[in-house]
């Protein structure tokens, strides 16, 4: 009898959770497991804002996939998946090979969503992966270095587009990083301008207003200027143009524009003709793609509705990991001829948004937290993700242990 | 009786040597000493190639002037000298003040000489000061970071214009730095291209051919490609255009072009109408400017002929420091009514050209040295400059003590 072949696309939170749970529960004779990923490392998407600001080394943000995946049980393919043929049950890879599957788990993560705003794709950076994070860090440093040569004030202006989770966390890190940069490059702190532009009527939509107030007040003390309820009309080589009043616009000159406002699904979803909304698949209760009994979609490419408010859960590491575990368990059931679980239920343990290295806000197990306590919890959450996928040794190696300040 | 006023422009090797020797020998009632410098720090010009490559922190390359100048004896003015009126005996400063002098020591250092090559001033970097060094370092890092985004091979090409002293030392540091950068940015070493273009028929003109051969062979092993006897015709936003054969040209695409081929005098010399050749003053034997009995010119702005070969001594820290000491002693004699020494005699103790952190070539006290021994001597020379100006404590703080590898 032929062994079923499970292909997992993506070694993010969801993909690695799936693979590590599969390799634990399946023997070599039960199934062939294949993991496809562009890089031979996993990176912590939720830490990229730190690498982008320059407060954490990019190397600390990633680890080798070989550290957590058992090569004896899993074939690792370093390649980029371009398109899935859901009828032929094959995946087209960039380097020219085709890969067949019996079960497919799409865990490829998202892509920046620019909502068609002109120039954003060209002139704004995006906190997307290790490569873009390093580029943002180096771009900002280069601007500070060059300011001493040409004295252009816009070199010291950083615009952050979006006051959502990523935007706020990035601003928090900038608050720590900018004083260091000023020292390094002999720049007066007052010369640096950080502007956060958010089209929505509030920062951190969905968060408790009291916590939002705490976060914005803290960031304002760190010299962040908020432009809430202000839409970016265009990004240009000189900066951005924002809406002002009914018909007017205003230019904000800035050498650095970081777009941190939206995530859509991976392009492969659209490319493969799978039913989607902005590249995300509104999955069945058991996380299968509609009409495709052998394709599971998890993480940023999936869309799970929070019935309480009838809106999708935001794409987070937490939900991706729970989905990965759910799909792995169901695949094991299917292979062992048992009945899989009908519906994925998200267990929201809470959310903490960091505000730099030493402060944070959040709701954990239903309770509001701020300050050192929240910051401590954030680091515990970061360490937990490492532990869930790579156990104690990985946590010791890459974890955050500057827990109390 | 009015005290004579000595103004020293520039806190480089020559200027600081002058001031520290003056403050040692003159009492508060003997003279007013004023030091004018753009920054409140001194930097080691001879170490800038390290800061530019990123192998040494820019902060390690400089120290506060306050560390070596006695504020009780010397007025420090943080400003930029724009023009000297040698008749009125005044100096125009950038911030609008005018400064008078009885004796003036111009020790302002040089400026890059681009020999009129089109585009060099606009598209090439120059290892000139702490600001430009930091910019070069950050520019190179940004190119490496961005390569992972757009995969343009020219991002990983660095052109060094000039195989003279600075060019070769910079190439040596790049040889150490590039493997680090490749590791940091996940780049294969073979993708990086370093090209050194030199119009003269040899690298390091004036050096012993055996040493030149040692240096170029070593750098070639570190993947430097030499284009000797090749003139740069133009620098462009894309790279450089070099001469090829009689009439032909060739483009070398490179995101980083560092021009390290020429030094001329400080613009203030020309601006002030002092007799000069390429901004450098062919000084009288006692280092006075021709026809100006109260103006001394030392360091890169001065031109002292080496009678043996009837060519000017190259501008080095060594000669600048000896000139500074000579001028300080003569000023003390003048003020004390003694007869100053007639002629400055340069005592060439030797020259060592580093080839990275662990190798060098040179001639010291008439003997050729290479390898670890030469590298050791180079660091001793670097430490000696610190010691001569700032004594033991400065040497301990900023010196190079990784003496043996």
UniProtKB/TrEMBL annotation, chains A, B:
It comes from the Bacteria. InterPro entries: FAD/NAD-bd_sf, FAD/NAD-binding_dom, NADH-Q_oxidoreductase. It holds the Pfam family Pyr_redox_2. Its cofactor is FAD. Keywords: FAD, Flavoprotein, Oxidoreductase. Residues 5-324 form the FAD/NAD(P)-binding domain. Belongs to the NADH dehydrogenase family. PANTHER family: 64 KDA MITOCHONDRIAL NADH DEHYDROGENASE (EUROFUNG) (PTHR42913:SF3), APOPTOSIS-INDUCING FACTOR 1 (PTHR42913). This is NAD(P)/FAD-dependent oxidoreductase. It comes from Bacillus norwichensis.
